[in-house]
Specification:
six-stranded parallel sheet; binds adenosine monophosphate; alpha/beta
């Protein structure tokens, strides 16, 4: 899917109220932000709008709170059914318990700390509304002057957000004259604030989404060659769509991580107690055959770091892929494979990488992921790193500035690489 969408620079924003969907889903510990990377990432779009005289209404989700606004009495349909199945005398207490949970989540997932940090970064231009589309938000939006912003409360406090409720989308849209989506990490979801609002307002993308779609779109449509894709992570089943789509486009496909063991089994090797999806073995064979038919080089590990059990401190050793003992499990690629993969990455024109080569959270099984990060950083290729564990490894090792692009959305970038339509982008105006 290639997108050519209008951006904030293609639309007049001076003096206009502009609703901006950001990704402020930042990590918090006891109400304190532990990384403001996502807030910093959103600044170019917000600054452009403020500098160009817009009145900016910012919105975002944070975590997965229990929603407050729901049918009947603050309950979702499922909860309502559960409560109503209880004996009559227990129903009131069950409802109250759920409501209390929702109110607790309201404290836990408030965007107030984000508003405070934004206000520091933007010289006091940002206020916070304690509701989403309620009286406080309405008053603060009405009072906005050109060059000022208000962050409204967590859109997921309202159950209509994730259901893409038309009335909620309309209420959000009524605040503004223009809608800007800059939340790439949520663009694969058709929610009210990520897609629904675009039914009621002219909609364009911010700089973050623009960068994601231009770099990834170019890599898929017209890549500098050789084009190498590296896929890792736990399961084949999560990545089938990506493998299928990328086989059509790449010159080399590298498979590591837990998903490699299903391919080993497809080759007739014993995988011991490694992760293996028995019901995907035939599919693995088909994918290998498809790669062969297309002339795509298909690389899987030739050796592995294996452990006795799934434990950080388990005894570990290296074996070849056709020699995994029946009571051991593969937890990382081995040294020969690191070299094999690094050689395939060297000289690439474009590299796309999604997913770790092993259980990279554990230091004894992080070597493969680190080696791939190093090889990609040193390759000189256009390098695109999917979110999640691969992005974390790149950042931890200090290679972030050597990469062309580190995606701001793991799930969304995977769906993009699968060739799926992303609702939060498809809804924006074409150039
Ligand atoms: P994903 O979210 O699909 O990218 O998968 C990431 C997860 O895969 C990480 O939490 C890793 O610990 C896990 N993983 C990678 N390799 C293996 C392996 N060989 N065995 C078990 N888990 C693995």
């Amino acid at each position: 899917m290639t997108y050519n969408k209008k951006t904030i620079e293609d639309i007049d924003v001076a003096g206009k109220k502009v609703l901006v969907r950001c990704d402020f889903n930042v990590p918090l510990k006891d109400g304190v932000i532990t990384s403001d990377k996502r807030i910093i990432g959103a600044l170019p779009t917000i600054k452009y709008l403020l500098d160009n005289g817009a009145k900016v209404i910012l919105c975002s989700h944070m975590g997965k709170p229990h929603s407050i606004f729901t049918e009947g009495f603050g309950l979702t349909k499922k909860e309502k059914a559960k409560v109503e199945a209880l004996p009559a005398e227990e129903q009131a207490a069950a409802k109250a318990e759920l409501l209390t949970k929702a109110l607790d989540d309201k404290k836990k997932f408030t965007l107030k700390p984000v508003a405070d940090r934004l206000n520091e970064l933007l010289d006091g231009k940002v206020t916070f509304a304690e509701d989403i589309v309620g009286p406080d938000a309405q008053a603060k939006v009405a009072a906005l002057k050109a060059g000022e912003a208000v962050l409204i409360e967590n859109v997921r406090f309202d159950a209509r957000e994730t259901k893409n409720g038309a009335d909620f989308a309309k209420e959000l849209a009524s605040f503004a004259e223009v809608y800007v989506n800059d939340a790439f990490g949520s663009a694969h979801r058709a929610h009210a604030s990520t897609a629904g609002v675009a039914d009621y307002l002219p909609a364009v993308c911010g700089y973050l989404i623009q960068k994601e779609i231009s770099i990834m779109g170019k890599a898929l449509a017209d890549p500098a060659r050789p084009f190498v894709a590296i896929l890792g992570g736990a399961k084949v089943s999560d990545k089938i769509g990506v493998i299928n789509n990328l086989i059509e486009k790449v010159d080399t496909l590298i498979i590591g991580g837990g998903m490699a063991y299903t391919f080993f089994k497809a080759n007739g090797h014993d995988v011991g107690t490694s992760l293996c999806e028995e019901d995907k073995i035939d599919l693995a064979k088909e994918l290998v055959a498809k790669a062969e038919a297309k002339g795509v080089k298909f690389l899987i590990p030739v050796d592995n770091r294996i452990g006795r059990e799934y434990d950080e401190n388990t005894e570990c050793k290296v074996t070849d892929s056709d020699n995994i003992p029946s009571d051991w499990m593969g937890l990382d690629i081995g040294p020969k494979t690191e070299e094999l993969f690094a050689n395939a990455i060297k000289g690439a024109g474009t590299v796309v990488w999604n997913g770790p080569m092993g259980v990279s959270e554990w230091k004894n099984f992080a070597s493969g992921t680190n080696a791939v990060a190093k090889a990609v950083a040193e390759s000189g290729a256009i390098s695109i790193i999917g979110g999640g564990d691969s992005a974390a490894a790149v950042e931890k090792l200090g290679y972030a500035d050597k990469m062309t692009h580190i995606s701001t959305g793991g799930g969304a970038s995977l769906e993009f690489l699968e060739g799926k339509t992303l609702p939060g982008i498809a809804c924006l105006l074409d150039k």
